[in-house]
């Protein structure tokens, strides 16, 4: 397991760079999608959000991003105790690109980070900036590939590079491992570990893949409409709530 840079501070929480979600709720069309959600995130840590389909994982991300209204409190405190709006990098669930899409990674990236018209010759500085951003995810060689020709793992890395520019306080990834093969998954997990340690940011990701949780996650949040359990991966995977929600006893197989 990764050694967290910060000790776990919740509850009471006096840790640096902390996102606090307190008694948070989301109502969509009269349905309580999320209720009484409580947890804290700290920088330098990878937190995995797990829960069955429809548990509210994407809704929780959208509430943190301010894309949907919520009740309760979501606030962010920087080192030194100053409250501020956090800068959040976000990669949504399975964005699709047409296989024949002629847009290159460079075009896509530069359109997102600059207002330089694509029909004009590319300034060297802009190309260098995009290359640097892609290097953060070991994707420098992808710069001239077509977006539509990227593998699942490569696409995740490009979108992650974009989410890391400018460097956020929090990186949110909605099911980054879905549609990624075993080698791609290994590369992504190693990279997340590196990014988390190198930039000391907080990574919150959702996943249905429990096999690798203990390797990379510092903490796991089990969600189903509310937070059922927060803890170290081994603790959450062994808890009764996990077995009940997934009808799964990982020590004994499917229950
Ligand atoms: N815009 C919407 N209108 C109506 N219901 C919605 C809307 N968005 C989400 N929901 C409902 O909220 C619940 C939670 O959905 P959400 O996508 O947050 O779950 P999830 O845990 O991310 O699921 P999955 O693992 O399948 O991606 C579901 O029952 C879903 O149908």
UniProtKB/TrEMBL annotation:
Q: Which GO terms describe its molecular function?
A: ATP binding; ATP hydrolysis activity
Coiled-coil features, chain-numbered ranges:
none
Per its UniProt record, what InterPro entries does this chain match?
A: AAA+_ATPase, ABC_transporter-like_ATP-bd, ABC_transporter-like_CS, Metal_Ion_Import_ABC, P-loop_NTPase
Which PROSITE patterns does the UniProt record give? ABC_TRANSPORTER_1, ABC_TRANSPORTER_2
Domain of life assignment = Bacteria
Pfam families under this entry?
ABC_tran
Per the database record, which ranges form the ABC transporter domain? 19-250
Q: Which UniProt keywords apply?
A: ATP-binding, Nucleotide-binding, Transport
Q: What protein name applies here?
A: Metal ABC transporter ATP-binding protein
Q: Which organism is it from?
A: Lawsonibacter faecis
